[in-house]
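forwarding from the other thread:

> can someone predict this with fe (ii) ion?

sure thing
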Amino acid sequence: MAIDYQSKIPNNVDLAQDRRLQRALEHWQPSYQAWWQEMGPEGLQDKDIYLRTAISADKDGWAHFDYVKMPDYRWGIFLAEREGERKVNFGDHAGLPAWQEVPGEYRNALRRIIVTQADTEPASVEQQRLLGQTAPSLYDLRNLCQVNVEEGRHLWAMVYLLHSYFGAEGRDEAEELLARRSGDADKPRILDAFNQPCNDWLSFFCFTMFADRDGKFQLASLAESGFDPLARTCKFMLTEEAHHMFVGDTGLERILRRSAQLTKLDPNGDARAQGGIDLPTVQKFINFWFSYCLDLFGSEISTNAADFFGAGLKGRFGEEKRFTEHTALGQHKEILQWKDGRLQPEQIDLRSAMNEVLREDYIGDCANAVRRWSNAVQAEGAAFEVKLPHERFHRRQGLYAGQSFDLEGNPISDAEFEQKRAEWLPTQEDKDYLVRIMQPVRGVGQIANWIAPPRRGINGLDFEFEYVRI
Amino acid sequence: MAHDSVSTFAVSFDTHPSRYRHWQLRVDGGVATLTLAVDIDGGLRPGYPLKLNSYDLGVDIELADAIRRLRFEHPAVRCVVVTGGVPKMFCAGANIRMLATSSHTWKVNFCKFTNETRCEIEDATANSGQRYIAACNGTAAGGGYELAEACAEIYLIDDGFSAVSLPEVPLLGVLPGTGGLTRLVDKRKVRRDIADIFCTKAEGFRLRDALKMRLVDGGFAKSKWEAGIAERAANVVQAAGGVGSEPGIELKALELTRTSSPETEVFAWPHLLLEVRTAERTATLTLQGPEGQAPETANELYKQGCHAWSLAAFRALDAALLELRFNHTNVGLILLRTQGSAAQVLAHDTALTRLRGEGDWFAREIQLFQARTLRRLDNMARSLYALIEPGSCFAGSLLEMAWAADRSYMLADPDRPNAIALHAVNQGALPTWNGMNRLAVRLLGEPKLLDAAWQLHGPVDAEQAEKAGLVTRAPDDIDWADEVRLAIEERVSFSPDALTGMEQNLRLAGPESADTKLFGRLTAWQNWIFQRPNAVGERGALTMYGNPQPPVFDWTRT
Ligand SMILES: [Fe+2]
Ligand SMILES: [Fe+2]
């Protein structure tokens, strides 16, 4: 099949001249389209949606707004512009010119890094597939579609790397990315959080808040990579990721504000009686998703993390700007190990603790948002503080996976945890309740009762705008 | 077993399914399932958590025990499914930290034992009608895949994640030394260039590619996994004519009595005495011949169970060899002796041979066990001298010990009769590693002597034995003491490394088999690599594994 590359696939990688890439995409593009039809947002494929499309990587072209039907969305391939002669900035090769081709010795490691990141992009589309049916407003429905088409574009970006730099193996991996399915018993997505169902909008906002934020930190640490095409790809993806986190952050804030209002409104302080979501239920969903997303960073002590850093493949968050020392040798990080029934501090060499270093930065970022939410809730007159659970709470990966901890990180017995489970984590009843109240709202300028309207609309427009032509 | 002398800690090979920490053995009709769920904190020595279903010697001792018990205690089993009991990981192979913190001697002995255990799996499949199938319900990496290779069939779960791999070369700078390379090209007959790709790709291959490369024999999606494996196991049983009716015998723990004097540590098992003289760096193994009559019928043999001499004596020999390997590493020379009635040994060999010929499973298993124990003797990295003296019973199965030895000395004293005797078992039932019998290997260049030897019926005296090429030297009573003493003293003065290398090269003449390649080539190269700075130097790959810095290699190639 012939593709008019320039118009169909906006790019800044000279696709029209790249026969290897063309050949790979000719094969992959139809599979991608089929996947999108099958797994993209249900019931919205023929709708005109006010979407942002990246048509070039410069500051005028990356945010082009117009109505578009999602299957016609122009999934492009963009890398941040090359900045002169970039160097490897950290690890054992610091100071050498950054690699423009994959170094043979790191081929497998790089492919694994890229495939793992790439797998999350289609996974989240699959997880969010049915949410369009219950959107609380056209504005939110449009945001859902925006996030989804961009996750699709992120998949393209990663597949570009696989196709361009990893030969036949890369093409196979690209096919596999379309073959796995979130939550499938036989072909699940690679990471656990991306196999969790995301069937209500509270979960969606938690997901974009916490899982997309994991994406931000992963992408940022890969944007430091000594493998230049990966670094530049990730840098550009970060610009789009910011909007996804905005959707989650403000979405949760709007739910919390509305919940506080309804709590106040109800004579018994019962937000549910007013058709809203009570504040403790929101907290439970935060506990669930935050703890799942902490697992995404990998084990606290990791030889892979050390290898990736040493090799110059994956740096710390803000490696170049925030740090002056870039070998991470001869330094240690204290990590509390759960051993012999108690927490014991242990000095872990810094490289092996890189997952934990990144996770700490992530937790700090999340904590900022939570503080703002608490202020917003309290500004509505509710005496409620939103909190992040402790990083040891409810973990299934890493050092704390085998032991139960409470919300403050204190060790407790499994029995105690089970006793508290319904208080700390969403129950089936909570989920059923959300499904019940989440009825679609599709009038221009209208909004569901359980969430506050946004303070402003998209691209300088009002909230009252026909973001989706239903 | 308490141990308080030479080495700081002693290894015990005595275990029982009720005491397993890492394996679970379940028997259900004709199918047995061996499930590996390694206890992370259950390492034999402290200092290395057994993460990701990785193993150390302790884990493998349980496996060896289970394989043996399946043959003797559950002979009706026709299919043994080996599978994993932790999520996503069938088995990650030998624990790297354990290897990195082990002495060279330990590594070598550990690898040898695990190799022998995998050969026992193949022996059970080939000769005991127990077909092993590997059900890799998670990633099989390194030694994990090698364990699967020892099975007759390999199945891999199709979950988009699990893979088979041999990451030793790219990741650790060593070899898959538990038969991994050998079985790949020799047993599975994977083309060498395909094998080359496999062995250098650390993360390995998932089902689709693994099937194409013939690294596995099949696979099932996650949701069809349990049913798929169960069906395959049922088919194996059916193809073998259904679940057997053999009742099995109990392998009771071996009784061991220990005494020690300042010069000698003595281990006494039923029918076997091991005397270790640490200062001299020698040990004597004295095997007692049978006292009672040979069993007449299968039922009689069955009633004797694990106390039947043919089994009990060789179980003791097996235990003594392992005791020497792991707990007495400075013993360089083992003197092999026997005591008892040669006629009785022959009578027992005859009984076993006849009953086995009549289809008795127990007689078959005993002979197979004798053969394996003798091969363990072949594999000893110690010098072996057989001392054949009046009152000894080097006949039939026990004569194999003399032929396994590097030299044999037979006393020629006209006043004290001293004889050896051959038996039909010498001609085939007790083959060495290359599949030939030891006498044929021994007389490779003298086919006429070999033919003549098979015609020797009845006792063969020292002079005759020397002439027939059956023993090394036959000194008379005047020379005996001095000749033997000098041979011993000379032997223990040589470089132990050179001796090990020399003996291993001289012991196995004749054609190669997959097993001889495994022990003679793969293991030898592995042991070389294990000594090299590129593996174990300050910045060697094995040393640096798990450290924050990459290894540094000396790039010189020989
Ligand atoms: Fe993304
Ligand atoms: Fe995203």
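Chain B has two domains: 5-239, 257-498. thats all i got for now
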